[in-house]
Amino acid sequence: MRHSSHAPHREPGGTLPRHAARSGACPRAYTPQRGRTPLPQPAFLPTTAREMRDLGWDRLDVLLVSGDAYVDHPTFAMALLGRWLVAHGFRTGIVAQPRWDAPHQVDDVARMGRPRLFTGISAGSLDSMLAHYTAFRKKRHDDAFTPGGQAGARPNRAAIVYANLARQAFPGLPVVLGGIEASLRRISHYDFWTDALRRPILMDAKADLLVWGMGERALLDAACALDAAVETVGADAYDAALLPPLAEIFDGIPGTARMGRMAEWDAAPTDDDNRNENGQSDGSQDGPEQDSPGTLPLMRLPSHAAIAEDPRLLMRATLLLERHVHRGDARAIQPVDDTPTSRAVLLAPPAPPLSPDEMDALYALPFARRAHPSHREPVPAEEMIRTSITTHRGCGGGCSFCSLALHQGRRIASRSRDSVLDEARRLNDMERFNGSVSDVGGPSANMWQARCTLDPARCRRASCMHPRVCPGFAVDQSEAVDLLRAVRATPGVRHVRVASGVRFDLALRDAEALRAYTMEFTGGQLKVAPEHICDGVLDLMRKPGLAVFERFLTAFADHSTAAGKEQYVVPYLLSAFPGCTDDDMRTLARWLAARGWSPKQVQCFIPTPGTVATAMFFAGIDPAGNPVPVARTDAARLRQHRILIPDFGLSPAAGGRAPGGPGNRPGGKPGGRPNERPGGHDRHDRQERGSDAGRDRRGHGQKPDGRSGRPDGPDNDARNANRHDARNDKRNEGRNEGRNEGRNAPRPDSRPGSRPGSRPGSHSDRRGGKGGGGRSR
User: Fold this and answer.
1) Per-residue model confidence as pLDDT tens digits over 464-523
2) pLDDT category, 137, cuts 50, 70, 90?
3) DSSP class per residue in 578-634
4) Are the CB atoms for 209 and 176 separated by under 8 Å?
5) Ramachandran quadrant class, 137 (left: phi over 0; alpha: psi -120 to 50; beta: rest)
6) Helices 511-520/477-488 angle, 10° precision
7) Is the bond leading into 467 cis (omega within 30 degrees of zero)?
8) pTM for the complete prediction?
9) CB within 10 Å: which end of the chain, N or C, has fewer?
């Protein structure tokens, strides 16, 4: 039975009535406008046939498969999405970290039977390759999203492996991809772990639909569309023989992509590239051809074949994809090749951000806020985020190395004040709650309720913060401070922190807010992300200049002194970023030494799929097309890293420090110091970090059969860094010549059944965190 009731009155834009904004009452009940009759929320979503029967369900409507353990907390995507579907009437179960090795390769996926509608697939909160390998391709020894922290519980390229398992377990059933791994690989992308251009993931996973970005709207739309099609023909479940083609059922759902043919979207290619930053025509070329009335603009990305031929086109594709996400009103298409009949990735416009009502309803669902009882060992990530509260999504920063702009978007979706305070009150019901709220924020704490006052369809800025904060980016940071104080005043709460950090250039625009963050909500350390201090490098990163950071440090130190506190800034720093030279790293080292700072952890850039910085690394150009220096070899990459950490990668016998040893104790002057970065969820862009890999211009493309230009074996990952530019095509799997100390020759594309588990290379690239690189939908 479909739901037909109407929602209560809302203010324009879906917000709560103004008179309720500061009431402190629980948020009003949410009435779904689509889907089926809402179902009662279980204590945990079912993970076995017995748990499903205990709920009175004879079968599932949707099965979600995840590379993470099942922690029933709103920060874990599968718990959030599963409960969201249940709230809209769809019986949803979860299979967490299924076995993929023979002879049990489909047993876990099939244990609750064939779902009525589809199987949803996610690699988990991290790209599975990043979850397995460090910036120097050494195998990690732990995984924060797995019980006991054990590494290897998910396969490499988990989205592809799990999609294959779903097709084997349920032949003919639709497969829907989602999560950070699929989202950032939705078009052609450079793959650091094979040093090659890879095809859009839909082509390798053979999935029917890809949900990109934050998935609540798109996943629910897909479920509703398929459910309506099934009911229309009177079928009991999805039956391809009775239903229209899936391309017709799923076509045009915002926030999705699918494979199709160029002719399906027969509109003029209007990539809109002839507008300037203010949205006006710059006269450099004729205006784009207009689509027929009533149709959406179509942005055409360079084909996969063209990018394989000319790596510089990856930069254009990436910039257009950023534009597609931000403008919000256009479709996009990427052909496989340049023939008129080519297959293509068809990308619908992005899903609109959730309204405050929807955000409130989502986070008001009765999450258990703990791991499923079937997990016998603790899940490290659960402890890291169990007392955190998410206030908003999205980030206006648009940093070139960060996936947030491409995944969550630059427009901010915020919860209401009442919703946040209600969650703070509910923390008292948790076991072992000691009154400390570890984090209240989002990708950064000081963008809650920020909004764009301009027209995104006409905006040509790549960042709301760079080269300076956009006048159209409106945010009242005093409201965020007031919220933090209200959370702290909640009965049972004693301490409140902003562990997600603050955007320091934005904080400088409100002296009182910065004073409050420093004096009231910093627990000795405040995380900020200067990344570097050389303005040329910072400009490529889309970060504020050194002068802005130094102003912030001065203000932070003054406020800390006024509060009588010894407090420190914990700055995140990057080495080997595209455009950064050895001289730039030496300049950074001298600046740190002048302040008495001795960094113990520095992140080495990893070119992860989808970001502008990765396109810079792959093509060797900046967004304007100008050549930039790139540390391509391991030797160059390690050299830059060791300018800041001279003993990095060395054994204790060779003068290195053991992780966590006395030499790693934080040090420096009050007012700011590089410090050991906590592993886990404290960093929103850990997904985007790492090293730059050695490569030359060969092997960027793929063979006609879809295989990458070089094998995915140890030869590719253990190639001799010092001879990299002179390597030849005669090397093949099994040859590991001239390994340097930055490599451990893992096999990135290990077959299902193999479980990486050797000791990690370093603590310099711990991952996790809120936002694009960490917990994502």
Assistant:
1) 999 999 999 999 999 999 999 999 999 999 999 988 778 999 999 999 999 999 999 988
2) confident
3) TT--HHHHHHHHHHHHHTT---S--EEP---TT-HHHHHHHHSB-TTS-B-----SH
4) yes
5) left
6) 30
7) yes
8) 0.81
9) N
Where do we find the tokens 């390690």?
638
Query: Per residue in 9-25, pLDDT tens?
Result: 333 333 333 333 334 44
Q: Fill in the amino acid letter for 261.
A: R
600 closest CA partner among 525, 674, 683: 674
SS3 at position 175: strand
Question: Tokens standing for 508?
Answer: 């400088």
The answer for residues whose C-beta is within 8 angstroms of residue 53's C-beta and 6 or more apart is none
652 or 591, which is more confident? 591
CA separation for the pair 512, 577 (Å, rounded): 34
Cross-strand pairs, 259:
345
Q: How many CB atoms sit inside 10 A of residue 321's CB? A: 25
For 93-102, how does the pLDDT look when each residue is reduced to its tens digit (9 = 90+)? 999 999 998 7
Q: Which residues of 205-229 are buried (b: 16+ CB within 10 A; e: fewer)?
A: bebbbbbbbbbbbbbbbbbbbbbeb
Q: Which helix (H) or strand (E) holds 335?
A: strand 331-335
What is the Cα 483 distance to its own chain's centre? 26
pLDDT score recorded for residue 471: 92
